[in-house]
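Q: How would the structure tokens look for this protein?
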Amino acid sequence: MKKGILLGLPLVLIAPLMLLMLGMGSANIEAVRAACATTTNSTAGGSFGIGTLNWRGASHYEKNPHPGERPYGERVPNMVTKIGASGASVIGFQEFEPPQAAAFLEATDGAWEIVAGKRRGRSSTVDAIAYQPSAWKVDEVRYVSIRYGGPMIQVPLVRFTSTSGLGSIWVLNTHNPADAVGGSDAMRDAAVRAEAVALGKLQAAEPSTPLFLTGDMNDKARFQRLFLSVAGPGWSAANPSDQQIDWIMGSPAVTFSGTVVDRSTNDRAHKYTDHPFVYTTAQLAGSESGRPGASAGLGVMPASITATPGGPVRGQVLVANANIKTRGGFNPGVRALAGPSPDFITLNEVEDVPLSQMRSAAPGYDAYREGQPADTNDAGQAMGSAIMWRSDTWTMLDGGRVKIVDDDHTVFKGTNKLWDRFAVWGIFQRSDGAVVSVIAVHHMTNAYRFPRQWGNPPESRAEQYGLGMDYLIDLVGGLAPYGPVLVGGDMNSHPNDGPNAAAPRMAAAGYRYTKDSGVIYNFYAAPVEVTETWEISKAAVHSDHPALFTRMEMKGAGPGTNSAIGTRPAGCPPCPTSGNLGTLLQPVAATGNLEAATVAASAAYQAGFRGEDLVTAVAIARVESTWDPKATNGSHFGLWQISAQHKGKVPGWNTRADIFDPLLNARYAFALYSARPGSGEAKFADWIPFEKTDYHQFLDVARQAVAATGAGTNNVAGNVGTTGCTASPIRVAGELSAALKARLDAMMNTSNGLCGLSWTRGAPCTYDNQCPKVVDALYGGPGVGRGYGNGQDVAQGIINAGLAQAHGTGLDPLPPVGAVVSYNTGNGVGHVAIYVGGGKIFGNDYGCSANGVYGCVGFADVHTPGGSVTWALPKQAFDLGGMPAAAA
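A: Here is the predicted structure in token form.
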């Protein structure tokens, strides 16, 4: 399974203030930012070095050496020195045969990596692109086919994203056939056209993304004339003249300077090779990095989003969802949809309707879908969905397309079909500044009622549908940090079709829905409420589906809580917790056998589970097997009830008895978990949707089991260093310490409210400040006077800082004792309190005996404040010292 790019939202400027309210200094803020640090895709432009080099293949020494030619083993170190001095971070290599590739990688010791082309269907380094991983990461690899003498070869076309803010680029590296291998002018011309056409399609799809062509063209001026005539205006050559056959070309977004044609390397392979080494500085125009096209890999999410999070969305939003199958019926159909003046219209099966027709058919509406994909096999399904919006009310900020299903081998009306499926997304800003995201999706034809497949695909149609929902939910999560997300379209499933159908999967992600009489849905999340929904007939919309209308009261819905844009370091899913869990976590009454749970916890940790996902894995094992390593249910075995169909995914399962080994079973579980996109519960999609028992009830004992194994102590801290993920200093507390209890008692006994506490005098004494003052008074240092802002600020600050441990409506499961619980009640104020165990929170406004006394404190049920809830654990750096003795 291809991994997608993780999505989310960068830390906002308010986070340091929120952290200070919670008793954290700037050093701790930086520590939070460093943990699981992300890399973002900048649009600032800049420059880098790029080159092209023909190595003179190692095999020439044995087959047809030049006079005095030396073997590759003597030449590689010399060429490595030249490369190091060039300043290039991306170089196209030709005649880079496997022995040379191995020697180069060994000599550079991790400073360079390569992306290989293909020959005879297999990976081949002969044509490769070398890059410095410290400067670039690979986003996507494609291939362009050309004839090289006799056989067809595939040369690499790679999308890189800078690690230092340069944005994204595409590089195509080629070796056009020389006469010596059976090439000809006609064959080289055909290769040039194929290369220019491939780059032209990319340029059309991503006009602002810089594109490069490097390679040994085996033609001088003739190549340049033909390439520029096909590629189109704006392309340029880095070469200072047309007297070389080794070329570097750049698209209109690129300018070159300081090109070097190092002819010293063309020494007939005595020390180097038989070509000059050409390298240059490429200046990139500052621009938005291009959006990956629809033929990008399955589940590949946008690497960056050009939008700013909005505030609470108020008022009503009307959405229409429709599938219009025929171009002839589009105009009357879309006019019927536009009649009630919806804010947004999501469309499916409109691949043959140009955007210009959409706009002209519905005056006052604009329309969007991603451009034609480079892979023509994807074209029909990729272009099928679109979003329209009222242009007098909304402005589009960003948009794109994500493939959610790849190669559905379905049998449709007796005919074998190979279809992909896509979700088109857009982020829109209203004239008052409110931001809403909209997704138009057209999922697989009903995988539950029509499971038949042709060929021998590796997954059932129902499994593919479920994975498609994984990717759709992953996309929803990536857009949520900007504002509420509305999802609509032809989902081709019914609520009772199965656990992976659209309705139950979206419900598990916190989304409700409206639905027509068929399979058209509109999904939305609380606090949004539906005020009216209706459908219009198939005839009215000129389709084989009715159309759905949903009017929603947005009720202050705002940005959600998701990961920051970028990529986590490998081995950090999510950042492991550290600290003395074994000593701080106190025994609690819980269902299940701790000793048996400890076996599962130890195996899960050794298999690779970390952090909260480690605890979740142990709790899920309780549901699956009651922590019995020998449990069997038909063809499902062991702690995590691994299905026999997965045999072979992990080495070691040779006999039936093998899978009952807790560690091997855990390794299979971790392999399944790792193959799922997203985070949190989405990673456990092989279990949770099929369970009739809620695993949450076993989280407490699972947490104890993790602590009992030592998986939360030295082992975690020791292993974090190997993952590239900075350990979070969060500590889990099972009961309040004596110092914290003393502070709590002091607050309870302060007749004049929190304003009278000697160690919290610095903050203003206003009503809105009092609930943050509780946090400060419990965890802050002497005289620091924190407590600015309100409870809603604290909640969002925790979220923005990446400290949130849970988020949603209500607290299930309950957090550890001592957790800071924040409630976003949607009123612009919110609330924050401390969880003290037994289902109770401690905070202001509870048990007040005198009206008008700010900061009177007491206890209340954890669910009393309501709203959207998040909690964070106090950090190790909280200052608990120096409290005046009188206060204790």
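The mean pLDDT is 76.

The chain is about 25% helix and 25% strand.

Upvote if useful.
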